[in-house]
Amino acid sequence: MWKKITIFLFAFLFCNTSFATAYYFNNCKLSNAVIGNYLINLNKNVIEVSLKSLDGKSQNFVDKIKSIEKNKIISERIKSSKGKNIYYQYFLNSKSKTVIKLEYEKEGEIDMSVFKLRSKRESLCSDVKTDWDKIKIDQAKTNKEEEKISEAQKKIKKEQSSLIICLGNNHEKWTKCKGTYKTEAGHKYVGLFIKGKIVKGTSLYSGGATYVGDFKNYEPHGYGTFIWANGDKYYGEWKNGKADGNGTKIWKNGRKYLGKFKSDKLHGQGTLFYPDGKKYTGEFLNGKRHGEGTFSYLDGTAYIGKFIDGKEESGGVCVSKEGKTIPCKSKTDTQKKDFSGKDTHKISLVAKKWVRISQYETNTKKAKKIMDKLKTDFETKALEICSSKGSYNVLQKKIEVLEIDETPAYGLETKLKIGVTGAVECK
Fold first, then answer.
1. Global pTM?
2. Where does residue 402 fall: left (phi above 0), alpha (psi -120 to 50 degrees), or beta otherwise?
3. Domain positions in the chain
4. What are the respective helix, strand and coil percentages of the chain, to the nearest 5?
5. What gap in Å lies between CA 192 and CA 177, rounded to an integer?
6. How many C-alpha atoms does 34 have within 13 Å on its Cβ side?
């Protein structure tokens, strides 16, 4: 009996993905009259705040967590009662044991809003518990998504186990039965057919990809999992053959995205994890970082602010390794070189054909040929521009991804539109 109980408890403790451990920042001196307590609820992804004044009055509210980092937890940007365009955001810093509150003023239109930093307040907390494990938290989110798809697959199998087998070779006459149908293109569908069309089951595509889930007009529609031939995976919501709604995509190279999709593209609120440890949490538009977001680096530094067309905009907030926050310029702005005062010319060329992501990352096959041609075309263009002087120096030259097509065709992997950009000095 005791042996069974022990086994049960062991299984429960190690299979449960919820977070039972409480993390908090308590007894934080916000002012001479107010003490703040912050309880971090990882299961609900919120911070439960309690403010108490010396006269015994208290105020309780809940704020959403925007990002969880190794040494800090960042709240969403919150509308303040101080004014129409006033917002605030706070950082719970485990290293300094402080709560840092930033106050912003919003300027500009809705689609191009800029948040200017107005003030900063740092408060020390005397009672903290901050030994959360960022890796385990991120993994738990992935596990929860994987549990969803596993349950969906079990449900499909259970539903189809009791179905009668479809009779005859004319699939258009099949209804409320389990059948197998192969198209002229080589796609194979196995599952529940109603009125001559599959509505739930599995499809094996000629390119080597597999889909398990709901269908509409022989396309993924509803909820399901798609596995590409190269190992990329997507599980979540679909609409008319495209990833649309809530979903998770995991690339073979280690990239991982959890959030909203629209027409196969990252679109809406989400989190993108990079293989080298970087992470972006925020808004996406047509596959690119666009809107409010936080870009975190492996060393603990971060940029918090506006992103336009995939790039950081100036006017955001930088976070140092120690958790200190200061106004900063875009990291991409600071990396740009100044070529003013020279006989310089910018060059930008776009490849005519798309390339597979695996070939781009390994610099092989068709992608290598296209990248080599871009480099040659860059040199040719430079010679043409500097023909009057006869020679030139390359000041900057780089191959970059301009556009991503996540689902070019069933069975095929992600494709990229690439180009070369740079600058030369004629001499």
1. 0.55
2. alpha
3. 23-132, 135-275, 337-426
4. 20, 50, 30
5. 6
6. 11
